[in-house]
Known about the structure:
This protein has a domain at 214-543: TIM Barrel (Alpha-Beta Barrel), CATH 3.20.20.70. It is 25% helix and 17% strand. It has 16 helices and 21 strands. The strands form 7 sheets. It has an 8-stranded parallel beta sheet. β16, α9 (383-391) and β17 (398-404) form a beta-alpha-beta unit.
Amino acid sequence: MAAIDPTKINVTVSKNGNGKKPVVASRNPTIKPTFVRDTHPMDFPWKIEWNAETCIRCGSCVATCTFDAIKPQLQRKGQALSTGSMPNPIESTEVIMAIKQVNDPKNYCRGCSMCEKVCPTNSIKPVENGHHRFPLVARKGGSPIKRGGRGHGARTRALDYIKVGRISQMTDPSLDAARHTFDMLTPLGRGLPADKLPLKVENGKLVPTGWTPPMRWIYPIIIGDMSVGALSWRMWEALALAVAYLNEECGMPVRMSSGEGGMPVRLLKSEYLKYFIIQIASGHFGWNRIIKAMPEMVTDPAAVLIKIGQGAKPGDGGLLPAEKVAPHIQAIRGVPKADLLSPPNHQGLYSIEESVQKMFLSMNAAFKFRVPVAIKVAASSTSVAVFNNLVRDPYQIVGGFFLDGLQGGTGAAHEVSLDHTGHPILSKLRDCYLAAVDQGKQGQIPLFVGGGFGDTGDLAADAFKAICLGANGVFSAKIWLQLAGCVGNEKGRCNACNTGYCPVGICTQEQRLVARLDVDAVAQNIVDYFLALDQELKKLMAPIGNSTLPIGRSDALVSMSKSAAERLQIAYAC
Length: 574
């Protein structure tokens, strides 16, 4: 049967019983309905509102839109005027320049509001479209949806139901946060019990009788894994400047993870290398350059981190799109301009025991057993089994366990991975800590956790609660991007890190976009936040009477959620 074209149907209307003709809209054959493969701005999460009356046609909005979501277009405008005592309508038309939203799903508006920011007359802005059908039209061409940032809308966080409920007052007084001295350091490196320490007493002094695993005392907040490549070189430089300043001028031993992808040679050969945790992942990107720089290193790195998986897309390999593989990235990683994919696991490793034997021994040997070597895995149902195997490490060289939860963001993941894989972090942190307590080995392998910490802007509070649940510290990444001016949020605004067209120059290698970032201002914002965070941590430690980090002090916490209280084994308060 032949298909019927609705635009060619002739409509015949007959009179009804009372002799009157009903009002029926005529079928105009020039009007075509929207078919399945057509798209319209109403299908997108954000729609552009433009005011033709106030717009001065300066072109700033079109020039600043990195996604080509809007374009200038000539538009015919007509009007009818009547003058004189006997109205005689006169029709006139003119052609004006208008701003139109692009219909292509590849160039859809991300709602970053950069057009609104640069408009001198406030004539344009993106408006959230709650009735969009973007999940249906975005897969045009057969490609999965991919984006940076995190989630659709705010997620329920267990952290928000937890409060510091045990306050020291009379018989067990609290501390003065403004005048008391606090020890804010946490270990990174394998800890040994007292009976295993290779020490003896001679003439009232401790004398080493053998080798002890390397250990660093660091600040409990680590700047998480963000590679040279994922970030623009100016953003990475701003983070490095802030870390150096915090260490050199503020006396805060903050550490930063390099992420997978290597490091600039100048930094590898400088004394500032001691502030960086060098990461090696399944792609081994950048490690050829690191190995060649070893003979010229004037100091050791803070640690080596072997990344097995990450929480935002566990079981999936990383990806740096070809659009972001700039010439300096090609030089650092030793690759051509192409999509750089990391395998989902380290090739040749088939068990955690084998990784201890191969990876840990090789990395320790590379730095002559002077540098702590830690492992990073995604939180999952098997996290405790992995941690227990590390605790039983016969070589005693596992220097840390980094556990990444599902709310950790990444610009390299597909939306289906971000939204439907992973495991909440607090329950797995608690499970690992209590497993070590059951064996009497808590503290021997430092626990660091990440994934959503600082999402609300209160990183100190989130970190304090995690420490009370058993963490030695937390690692966070997205909050530093937000301090740099990132316009993305949890409700779907922008979140285009994967495209290489970051409108504020944070997650792109395009020179014209990178130039938008002020390195010194970003570094200053990060330093200021760390200084405020330090004071806030002390303000939380003082009421419970702790002058050192309250690692495992779950008695200081209460939960307003009964299920969370039972799961985390802390007090329930209503």
